[in-house]
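Pair request: fold both.
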Amino acid sequence: MNDKQIKSFLKDQTKGRKAVADNLYIRVQTIGKAYWEVRYSINNKRKFMRIEGGSYPAMSLATAKHKSSSLIQKVREGVDPLAEKARADSVKIRTVDDWYKYLVRNLKHPEITKRYYEKEIRPLIGDLTISHVNARDIKGIIDKVTKSNRPSIANKTLLCCKKLFNHACKLDLANNNPATAFKPADAGGVQKSRAIVLSFSELKTVFEIFRQNQDMFVRDNYLAISLLLSPGVRKTELTAAKWEEFDLEKGVWKLEEERTKQVLRM
């Protein structure tokens, strides 16, 4: 393809990938925006890689061909350009905060870990280099939470630290997990099941107080508490619910198994 043919392809306003030259493609994912891709095969696997800074027409056809040839030459030398790029990206990860921002993109429910990381972990070790975090730093984190009389949060924060550094070890960003040696006894202690419930008369009193203080406890909050109490689920199970989980005609809510009784998923 030449420039005229490429412009004609883009003028059609269709999404897709179009071969331009050997191993070089022009791709449109969003109408009005196009970029260059290189196709290559390595270890019997076919791959596509976006050329760095390769938007069209900012990068000309001639430049794209030159960059494509350079990448294909690397492949002939046994180098996988995508793997090389991933390695370069991981080098940019230095601090605990860098690592969390990288990790959170791959979490199924990032909002769950965010609470513990942002409030309890980041203020103390977020700016530290991953490999320099030690057991004393972890102890400082859980001690601070425990002293605030939040044993359950202390345990969950410790678990978050363990998961966070386990993944860092997997990518050789840390030589060991500084949270490994700590147990629930070092944080909030072994948690016991609670059997605290409100009677119907107590609930009636609570909602009466809500109604008497509508300037502070607005209608949205009133409805949210009502919804939370009706099925008796955890708060995050309700707030993260999806429309497709509900069958309004049958009056059934099918809660996904992986969203129940899960504190951290990393």
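--- second member of the pair ---
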Amino acid sequence: MQERCGFGTGELRVVVLKSQPIQRQRRHYRIVDAATGPIEGGYVNVSDMIARRHWRDDNRPAIPVQLVDRAAQAAAPVTAHE
């Protein structure tokens, strides 16, 4: 898609949330910028996602994210909480 559209830095970011493996209580994620590549990767605990539910409510805390890998680049900060 990047070859065809030529997005600039920050114009298209993809969040990949992998499926939950059997007998594991966490889901891994990656955030990738179309122009510059990987931004970060980590995981969230399934219990935290269940407690937060699927609707947005600004009075509830964000889902805690366990950062595993943050790519060193000048991209704008990304929030993987919502």
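Observation on the second member. Residues 73-82 have pLDDT under 50 and may be disordered.
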